[in-house]
Amino acid sequence: MLRQFRKLPRKSGKSDSPELARSSSCKTTGSTPQTHQSNSLNSGSGPGHPCTAKRTSSAVFPAIVVAGIEPLLPFKYVPNSEKMKLFVSKVSLCCVTFDFTDPTKNSIEKDVKRQTLLELLDFVASGSVRFNEPAILAMCRMCALNLFRVFPPNYWSVSNGGENDDDEPMFDPAWPHLQIVYDLLLKFITSSCLDAKVAKKYIDHSFILRLLDLFDSEDLRERECLKTILHRVYGKFMVHRPFIRKAISHIFYRFVFEMERHNGIAELLEIFGSIISGFALPLKEEHKIFLWRVLIPLHKPKALGVYFQQLSYCVTQFIEKDPKLSSTVIRGLLKYWPITNSQKEVMFLGELEETLEAINMVEFQKVMVPLFLRIGCCINSFHFQVAERALFFWNNDQIVNLIAHNRNVILPIILPNLEKNAQNHWNHAVLNLTLNVRRMFMEMDDMLFMSCLTHFKKEETKLSILAQKRKEAWERLENAASLQPITGNTAVLVTPLATTITC
């Protein structure tokens, strides 16, 4: 048994730093390859031979070093007292990275690494031995070397907002190995044999930032793995929770105000949705600031449809925690209201209805005037889906109740929009909905309705008189200008008759 253990990689004489600092040293003793933090592996043929390594580079991923791998002993042949040493050796063996762009290259070594990773996964899942500090360091180092990488340049233009359906996502050819590493990291973090007080030295701020950088992967499978892992990290390492929230906020800031392109916004919002649901009451001021400075501006980018469901859930969680924030949310939606994007308008109206369902009377009265001015504009929209979605508000009993209690303010604002729709809207469905809402107001308060209708007709008459006077004034100016002689560079007023083209 001892003779077999001599084949295991020897531990470096220098003590490892708690941080994942990369080492560039080269070791030549032994026939088993020794991996280092510089993402390189050196294999020596014996004492006195120089370190040699074959470097291969990919057009997509960074340069890597390839060398042979020898399998190690199975855990079942090792006593419990030696299992941690074997665990560290196996993890160190998996630090070797390969070029997966060529499936035929190093196929045997790749298979050995895959089998070793699966064996490590089973060992961690069994929870038979408590992880010591060298094992935690080796595990974090292996995950860093395999997972943390720079993605290829993304050629999406900012102008199209990342909504070009013709662009297919790029997948890492090393995913079969990466998936096992992700599963291993998840099992390791959630293991009861991992002491969070020791592991926090290695799963530190730098490790978390590199983990967050991976959310920009175009591979949905990788983002799903990252989402689960980060959620577990947030739950297990309480000391890192403020930093994780702050780091995610910075990603949102860059997305909204700089790039408007990021692949993992939906997943990060999904994580934050579960975080918000765990906030204690009363809400801290920093959480309210996050709502106003981060979540509300996230309604601005063109790619809102990609993550709207997760964003709406986060906002709803805040309102459920503190209903007084509903007026803040409505003011934010009105601030970033999409004037020229009908698809986003429909989404905004849907979120607005959800907010109004949870609002109380006091908060509603703070925002009802600007709110119904905007709803009135939506009712008159020539895009039938926008007008229809706005008129659907009157199918909601909670919103109708709010309107009924404040009809003296709301009806004078909304009635002109209803009358314009009833007179000349092109869509029959919108026209019928308009007449139903009009009838609802009439049944709600007949005297107020007739008073507002009379006032509307008077205003329409005044506007038509002003328009006629304006037309007559322009005609007089045109006639007077036509009688003036044309001299030099004097501008000439061309009458509409002179520009009329008959077909």
Give an overview in words.
It is a single chain. The chain is an all-alpha fold. It contains 20 helices and four strands. The protein has helices spanning 2-5, 83-93, 107-126, 133-147, 175-190, 196-199, 205-213, 220-236, 241-259, 265-277, 285-295, 304-321, 326-335, 342-358, 361-379, 384-391, 397-405, 407-424, 428-444, 446-482; strands at 34-36, 40-42, 54-56, 64-66. Strands 1-2 form a two-stranded antiparallel ribbon. It has a two-stranded antiparallel sheet with strand order 3-4. A hairpin with a 7-residue loop joins strand 3 (54-56) and strand 4 (64-66). Helix 5 (175-190) runs parallel beside helix 8, helix 13 (326-335) runs antiparallel to helix 14 (342-358) and helix 14 (342-358) packs parallel to helix 16. The longest helix is centred in the C-terminal third of the chain and has 37 residues, at 446-482.
List keywords for this structure.
elongated, two-stranded antiparallel sheet, 20 helices, mainly alpha, 503 residues, disordered N terminus
Mean pLDDT: 82
General shape: elongated
What order do the strands of the largest sheet run in, or round the barrel if closed? 1-2
> For the terminal residues, how far apart are their CA atoms?
102 Å
Tally the beta strands: 4
Give me the Rg, rounded.
34 Å
Indicate the low-confidence ranges by residue numbers. Answer: 1-71, 155-166, 498-503
Number of helices: 20
What is the quaternary state of this protein? single chain
Amount of beta strand = under 5%
What about the largest sheet? 2 strands, antiparallel
